[in-house]
Automatic annotation (TrEMBL):
Keyword vocabulary terms for this entry: RNA-binding
Protein name in UniProt: RNA-binding protein
Species lineage: Bacteria, Bacillati, Bacillota, Bacilli, Lactobacillales
Coiled coil (residue ranges): none
Ranges for domain CRM: 5-101
Length: 107
């Protein structure tokens, strides 16, 4: 896994503001946390850089467990948790998909 640059407060505030109007596009259900699910998250973040996911009522994992699982197995950063929703950020490697990372880097 590559070195992760942890986000500073100013960067997290910017990303939280950008994520405000986003809808969750992934959810954690009864199937739980798997490598396949992480691969799908990474793919979505490569295209979008910033997404929201939510934990369904049927999910056995807690928000904290989900956060730890994501950050422990990928270079994805959890920018915010609100209830059962997590805001995830990962800079895209393809410059065409870098909507937020160019701004975040300059902060």
């Amino acid at each position: 896994m590559e070195e992760i640059n942890l986000l500073r407060g100013k960067q997290k505030r910017y990303l939280r503001a950008q994520a405000h109007n986003l809808r969750p596009i992934f959810s954690v259900g009864k199937n739980g946390l798997t490598q396949t699910w992480l691969d799908q998250l990474t793919g979505a973040l490569e295209k979008r850089e910033l997404i929201k996911i939510n934990l369904q009522q049927s999910a056995e994992a807690t928000v904290a467990e989900t956060k730890d699982f994501i950050e422990g197995h990928t270079d994805i950063q959890v920018v915010q948790t609100i209830g059962r929703v997590l805001v995830l950020y990962r800079p895209a490697t393809d410059t065409d998909n870098q909507r937020y990372s160019t701004v975040v880097e300059d902060m």
